[in-house]
Amino acid sequence: MESYGQQHNSSTPFKVMVVDDALVIRQLFRRIAELTDVKLYEAENGQKALELTDKICCDLYFIDLRMQGLNGCDTALKIHQKKPNAKIYIITAYGEDRLIEEINRHNFELLHKPFNLTEIINRILAVRNSKQ
User: Fold this and answer.
1) 3-state SS of 9-60?
2) Among candidates 75, 54, 53, 52, which has minimal Cα distance to 65?
3) In sequence order, which residues have a C-beta less than 8 Å from that of residue 101 and are 6 or more positions away?
4) CATH code for 15-121?
């Protein structure tokens, strides 16, 4: 299996959280975590993500825009208030102008579904390398 994790030599693991109600997306991120040697945390909704964020300091978040309950934009705003140094990507298959304006105003980055493994791996490695 090809691994992308050799560059990371820190004793503190690089922590990534994926927040998505779709199991298939969380499974994709599990595969990516194996390839990149990162510690992955998963939440199936915004409320669970906030609960995890109270306990764990992640370096990077991938948050689905459309979820039941707390939407991705509101989840990202609340996480950003708690962890202002964390990098946040909003992932979506939709182009909702009002929410996209909100995302841009807060300097979150937008990733459109479908995305591929290489695209996500490159984002993780770029953020991880910038924090070393």
Assistant:
1) CCCCCCEEEEECCCHHHHHHHHHHHHHHCCEEEEECCHHHHHHHHHHCCCCE
2) 75
3) none
4) 3.40.50.2300
In the numeric block, which tokens belong to residue 131?
């924090």
Token output for 103: 């995302």
Q: What is the longest distance spanned by two Cα atoms in the chain?
A: 42
From the list 27, 55, 59, 54, the residue with the least C-alpha distance to 42 is 27
Q: Mean pLDDT in the chain? A: 87
Give pLDDT tens digits for 104-123.
677 788 888 888 889 999 99
- Side-by-side strand order, sheet with 60-64: 39-43, 15-19, 60-64, 87-92, 109-112
